[in-house]
Amino acid sequence: MSFLENIREALRSITSNLLRTVLTALIVSIGLMALVGILTAIDAMRHSLGDTFASLGANAFEMKAKGYTNRSRRGGVQGKQYPAITYLQASLYKKELSQREPAAIVGVSARISGATEAKANGEKTNPNMEVIAGDENYLRIQSYALAQGRTFSPAELQTGANVVVIGEEIKDKLFPSQSPVGKYLYALGRRFQIVGMFEKKGSNAGGGGADRLLLVPLETGNQLPRQAALTYDVKTATINAQGLNYLQDQATGVMRAVRHDRLGQEDSFEVESSDSASKTLDELAGKMQMGGGLVAFITLLGASIALMNIMLVSVTERTREIGIRKALGATSRQVRQQFLLEAIVICVLGGSLGILLGIAMGNGVALLVGSSSFLVPWLWVGVGLAICVSVGLIAGSYPAGKAAALDPIESLRYE
Description:
The chain is of the alpha+beta class. The chain has 13 helices and 14 strands.
């Protein structure tokens, strides 16, 4: 018998015992569904959370004057406080780093007020609106999107025009039934023209997020009345997360030059990065994958034992058939190959179903917990198919060897 004839014979044997084959394949499919489903759900949630962390600044870092916002004591001694980053220093840092690293995205902003009241059309907002002055990269750095209108033009940024981008909550209060773009509002004693509106962020955004935000050009913010000197936030981001550490090193060198830190002197600023959240996510996902893999391994172990048992029953039932095949010239190698192929085909059929169910189950679980991405884990699909073949070989080896070792004369006398 040829290899193809063995495959055809294995398929004929499978169809002749369809119920038993289906039950066996289901056992294997449940094991693969558990494996692929758990790992797919973890990967889908990991992918979704990775995007969320990226939007929250996981691929970014912020420069702050050391000791300016966190005056720590070490050994009972007050830590040294350095001057805040000035507007000139922030502008020089942005210019120098952008020239040195074109992939870097530098945003400079300043918080003007956190308790502002906006007025228009005889209406006014609650006095808890936040006014931020930002440059052309502010929206990109903060991962804010516009629902209407536009961002600031280069001329508006350079001249400090009285233009503003507002949040959804401000629009709903001041312009409930009309588009706010092109309209005017009053805040901090000035009249601003609305050029854009942020997309709604919802109640999950800390402090209201973009919904309660009035964004003005950075130069305009420098002209607005304030009680104290502005503190500038300098944030640097990159699309390539793998190059974040290298970019931090480059940024540190540029900021030291801008701040005139002498050779051998400690940095007069701190680099704050939120990539630790991403690392924690990776560690947690790795532990979940190990746990899920262990559960799936136990399930597959039970499936392989069940498959071996059923294949042994099949050998016993077909003892006379094996004797006839050997009497007609079939070798022990061909008999062994036939039973191995039967086991492998059953595993592949059940495993394929299990992989499809696992992908559906994993993405379904991820969808229930808030992930919106549909993921097909090709790596785990390949691993699952390899496991199917391995289980078939392991579970079918002993029954196939037992069938191959049968004496043809004794087999013909069986029953």
